[in-house]
Every structure is written in structure tokens, then in C-alpha cells.
Design a protein that fits this description.
The chain is α/β, with parallel strands linked by helices. It is built from eight helices and nine strands. Strands 2-1-6-5-7 form a five-stranded parallel beta sheet, with helices on both faces.
Length: 295
């Protein structure tokens, strides 16, 4: 039986998404019934002639804040009750959660409500993998100075931020979350192993796509960055693709690619190496790379 995952996006700019989900993998996943995306106009849940969705913040300050009433009605239209009605914790930070080795919290249940906010915890690949197991993800797009915090306390399972910067609203963040999560839904990618062998992918021990009797020329990233890729022509702009990639020796290619993963990560994201599960060979390679850089 084909499993379908649904995303619900609550926004004051539904037109923003008019073309963004009509291309590439997202379009194909929707056409094949693997992913559904519903866009909900927050202004449709207002009751005044100006369709007001925001108001000034209590206590003063710049900007406007999205009001709680339209958001609560929008969520109710999706069958989502507040935590008091479903017997949950008023404060999502107090709800019991297990933390895994990679820092991601285990997520369970068929629906998760997410507030997209600069104050949220980082959206990482580990979180995307957990969300891909959920049947429905509801994304609330903040705007202006943000969303009335009572919506977060009463309805949201988590706050997520896609980076340490401030966007004009949560619409771009919602598109990022949908694209990242849906490509991890079984059947969405043409090759099921594609999602395993890429930056921030799983470790070797978690990869199930090995073909018996065929040496694998790739390492799982194990949360590190991917290795560089090359294709035809073999020579371009005076630079030649590495000979090791063209000699057909899978084990030698695998060793080279692992070294490149470590080099890329050390150069661009050394923070990912902190706490990473590295083998003895990995550590020896890193030590050599560091010595080369120092000299």
C-alpha cells in the first residue's frame, strides 16, 4: 500500500506558493499521490471587513503580531484541538521528549504542528528524517514581529528555524521544510538510496541499500558533508577529474570519497566533526589532513 504524506501550510500569502511546488520532485511526488500540499489563507478565518490578522504588541515595541483567534480557527478547521482539549502539556518545552545521539528529539504521532520562527530550534536533516515518518505536518508561517505566543503554547509541537537569520515571513521556511522532508518519504526519490548518500546522510551502519556481492563505492556521510562530484568530460577548463574515480576500483574510490568528505567538512563545517562518530581510519585521515593544512 502506497503511503501518502500531507503538508498543511497556514499563511497570509497563499499566492506565494502558486508555482513553488509545481516543479521537479515535489510536482512528481504530488502527481504520484505520495505527497499532498494544502495551502490555507489565514485571512479566510477573520470576521471583520478588513480581514485583520495582526495587532500591536502588548508592552509596546516595533511591528505587529499575528493575532491568536484567526490562527486558532485555521487550526480547528484542520481538526487540530488545543492541548488543553487533548490533555497535553500547555508548554511544549515541558512535554516529555527523548533525545537521540544526534541531538534530534524523537517525534511520534500522526500529526505535528510546527511554528516557523527565528526563535525555533535548528531544522536539521535528523529532524527532517523524523518528520518524514509523520502522516501530516502543519506549518504555521509567522509574519511581522511574530505570532502570539499562546498559539505556540496551546497548539504547536515545536518551533523550527531554518537558519540563524531573519526572514520576512515563514513562507520560504515552509517551502524548505516541505522540500527537505518530502524527499525522504519512501517512493519520492527514484532511487531509494539517493537520500542516504548525501550531505548530512546516515552512517554506514544504517544503510540498507547495499547490493550483495557488489562492493559499494560510497560511504554514508554520517552527518558530515558530501564528497565532491565529477562527470563528463574528463577534462574541463584545464582541470582533470580525479583519476581514482575512473579506474573502476570501488574500494579505492570509497577511500578517496571518505577522505574528501572529511576534507570538505573540516574546511566548511568543522562544527559537524564535534561529537561525530568517526572510525579509527577517519581519525587518522583527519590528523593527516590537519598536518597538511598546518604545513
Amino acid at each position: 500500500m502506497i503511503r501518502s504524506m500531507r503538508f498543511e501550510i497556514v499563511t497570509i500569502f497563499p499566492g506565494f506558493f502558486a508555482g513553488i511546488f509545481e516543479h521537479g520532485i515535489v510536482r512528481r511526488a504530488q502527481a504520484e499521490g505520495l505527497v499532498e500540499v494544502g495551502i490555507h489563507d489565514l485571512r479566510g478565518f477573520t470576521h471583520d471587513r478588513h480581514r485583520t490578522v495582526d495587532d500591536r504588541p502588548f508592552g509596546g515595541g516595533e511591528g505587529m503580531v499575528l493575532k491568536p483567534e484567526p490562527l486558532a480557527e485555521a487550526l480547528a478547521s484542520l481538526g487540530i484541538r488545543n492541548k488543553n482539549e487533548r490533555g497535553g502539556s500547555r508548554d511544549p518545552t515541558l512535554a516529555p521528549k527523548k533525545t537521540r545521539k544526534d541531538g534530534a528529539r524523537n517525534i511520534s504521532g500522526s500529526t505535528k504542528v510546527i511554528l516557523l520562527s527565528a526563535q525555533g530550534r535548528p531544522f536539521r536533516q535528523a529532524v527532517a528524517r523524523e518528520l518524514a515518518k509523520v502522516d501530516r505536518v502543519v506549518l504555521i508561517c509567522g509574519r511581522y514581529e511574530g505570532v502570539d505566543e499562546r498559539i505556540n503554547e496551546l497548539y504547536c509541537d515545536m518551533e523550527l528555524s531554518i537558519g540563524d537569520y531573519v526572514l520576512s515571513g515563514g513562507e520560504l521556511a515552509a517551502a524548505v521544510v516541505v522540500d527537505t522532508v518530502m524527499r525522504l518519504v519512501p517512493g519520492v526519490l527514484g532511487n531509494e538510496s539517493s537520500g542516504e548518500f548525501e550531505s548530512f546522510g546516515v552512517a554506514d551502519a544504517e544503510i540498507l541499500s547495499d547490493q550483495e556481492g557488489v562492493p559499494r563505492s560510497q560511504h554514508g556521510a554520517g552527518g558530515l558533508l558530501d564528497y565532491p562530484h565529477y562527470t563528463r568530460p574528463a577534462e574541463f577548463g584545464g582541470l582533470r577529474a580525479p583519476e581514482v574515480l575512473m579506474n573502476g576500483d570501488h574500494l579505492e574510490i570509497r577511500r578517496w570519497r571518505r577522505e574528501q568528505q572529511l576534507r570538505k567538512t573540516l574546511a566548511n563545517r568543522p562544527d559537524l566533526l564535534v561529537g561525530a562518530e568517526l572510525s579509527a581510519d577517519d581519525r587518522r585521515l583527519l590528523e593527516r589532513i590537519r598536518k597538511e593544512a598546518a604545513s
